[in-house]
Amino acid sequence: MAKTAKATAGKNAKRTGEGLKVRRVFTTDGVHPYDQVEWEKRDVVMTNWRDGSVNFQQDGVEFPSFWSQNAAQIVTSKYFRGAVGTPQRESSLKQLISRVVDTYHEAGRKNGYFASDEDAEIFSEELTWLLLHQYFSFNSPVWFNVGTAAPQQVSACFILSVDDSMESILDWYKEEGLIFKGGSGAGVNLSKIRGSNELLSSGGNASGPVSFMRGADASAGTIKSGGATRRAAKMVVLDVDHPDVEEFIETKSREEDKIRALRDAGFDVDLGGDDIVSVQYQNANNSVRVSDEFMRAVDEGTDYALRNRMDGSEAGRRDARSVFKKMAKAAWECADPGIQYDDVINSWHTNPNTDRINASNPCSEYMSLDNSSCNLASLNLMKFLADDGSFDVDRFAAAVETVITAMEVSISFADFPTEKIGDTTRKYRQLGIGYSNLGALLMASGLAYDSEEGRSLSAAITALMTGVSYRRSAEIAGAVGPYEGYAVNAEPHARVMAKHAKAVEDVRTFGDIDATILGAARDEWGKGNKLGAVNGWRNAQASVLAPTGTISFMMDADTTGIEPDLALVKHKKLVGGGSMEIVNQTIPRALDRLGYGEREAGEIVDFIAENGHVVGAPHLSEDHYTVFDCAMGQRSISPMGHVHMMAAVQPFLSGAISKTVNVPESATIDDIGEIYLQGWKLGLKALAVYRDNCKVGQPLSAKKNESEEAETASSETVSEAGAPVRKKLPQRRSSQVTSFNVAGAEGYMTASTYPDTGKIGEVFLKMSKQGSTLAGVMDAFSIAISVALQYGVPLEEYVRKFTNMRFEPAGMTDDSDVRMASSLVDYIFRRLALDYLPYDERAALGILTTAERTAELNGEDPATVSEQADSDAEKAEAPVSPAAKPASSNGSNLLYSSAAREADAPLCMNCGTRMRPSGSCYACDGCGATSGCS
Question: Which structural domain, as residue segments, surrounds residue 404?
Fold first, then answer.
């Protein structure tokens, strides 16, 4: 990335005031924030998931005692600068925070932002305190670059432009590469490129925008952002009236068919896999930009015109519903394309006199002028929730003031990948303040995510955040002048500010807490708009809601961005390695808020820890179940619940919202179309939909009915008194011997069954290295499992507990149905599930044979494949358990269970941990890597 000339605040606008006065809120005069916390030394070790080798290690790093091991590991491996093992390597959080804050402090003082050096010093200490105590975080490029010898790129989000010329298209390739290299993501609208039906000046037809996407996609696939820390993130947009829009819509769904074929042939097509590079268009999110005219045509069932790019002439007409259904069908098949509502976006645009908004960043939250950028920062909402359930409005407003000031200051020293982007960003100074941990905040407040009360609180907080941001922006404009492009956009900017303020009046409140926050928001918008009428504003945009994957982990947040909780039980990383499953810490707080006593709450938490859900939990009222609904699991939030939450907060954001609306596998193409239609009617700016099981490598699952679950606990193992009774196998029993090899560790498994039921009752495991510790442990493990099976512990419970357990040896196996195993026990119980569990139970756990997966991809019923396999085995007189037969292949209600949904996400390309959804992207709990921008 080439360094561009830095522009001072004074150069962009005439200084009109005496600088900002800064008040102390979080710090104590005369005491540095570092001296108020307890520090400790830790070792950070990260291993390669394939072979167990150490791929990162730094011992003796220093962090506050209240920071989790996970947060310390992410910061150490991703954000500490300098070569490991050299004196230049950072080894303390103090060094990292000071490197960044000192740069902001000096730039703010130098460029006249503060009334005095004392105010600048207070700003520095307040900023340090907020970062140290995990109240907020800057986006990743700040931690990568600020205060280093590298170009100081602070923006995570970029929007580029492409014209209809080869020179412009090649510039696009280059500019994207520079942005990815700096740790950020970029989006672009390709609608200016002539369609494949139009002629070239030299004769012949043009290639069309889809063909040029191939080159950009290949380039993005070879570049890891920020050195080797993140994958390239990009967005490609095409207008719905472009002649090639239907080809664009189906681009990724066609490629998904190729991925399936490669996967079934044994190629590695997982995220970061060796063979995924042979498939095109996999490095970008695609979105169609639709107009109100088009959406009205969809709603009314009429047609609309395609437009040639060269002269705007009509290129034919299309039935709007037909094109719209193609969008929904492609999204149903592979989650792309998303949808962007052009007229809504531009109706909230503060700078229309400069140009319209054509595109977005990769995750669709930043929407502004072409060739512009936005730096992000996100607040940890849980930090402002008091023990009595109230929200600390004053401290929240003070934190927003400090963060917005810092974000604005960064533009005065930031470097940009191109002069065009630098020029636009300095002239319009777009910021993207947002928040994380909303889902946890609502649960801790005893509010359901999908409820009017939850949406009211969310809207009030968002309105307050953006209101304070623009009020502060007007104050900064009074000190150093408004943004350079403000003069020609004064009227539309003020009009949009009035729209935000009007939207506050439309929010309905349900209690003292949301009413108090909304009242404060109303005051902030009133003060800010009065001040802006005098001073103007320093920033064309102020707020967005980003996915916040990595930085949420850095802040030890339970949830990311605007998302609800993913699940009620999560993995906690332990100091010294390993992890354990724990109930989310938000749950006890929620139970207290709902009025449950300590003993009752303890029993509810124990139930959740054992079952992963609240259904049937002792003492818990069914009226409170909705409070604990999550993005996945037995009780998951409805798709429209996500859409309505987005609609509640959208009027209070300068930009948009990075969020994916999850729908069950059973959702139809029409269901997805209806979500896209309602998103437009509810005033959203953008929307993406993800249907469970629509991507390669995702297992099917089946819903078990209550009678089947009851059958699992065999009554033969329970006495009349209710005590468990051991049912031993007879001396002569049917057995099946399986040889296996997991990452070079060879062994044999002997599984024996009851002659009357065919259910498994005994497992013996022998490792090839006799006398080794591993062999001895496996012997003991075999005995423990066998005894428990004979006492009636269902095999399904063992499969659920032991699959996905990770330890060495782990890796490739010689089993065609279980090609990869994360440990020996992971392999063993996957193999036992395939051999001895009914099809529907295996499917619920995401365990299918290769033949069953192939059948599903071919549009066949996998259950019939299972039936045929059992039939063939019986004909061959093989010892196949009757329990392995599917109960029924007709009318199976295929849904997506929690276990299957976790398996749905890709493996992290850095550490191999299963990633989880984060907005429109994926984030890794293990190392903090993301597939998007945060």
Answer: 9-153+369-549
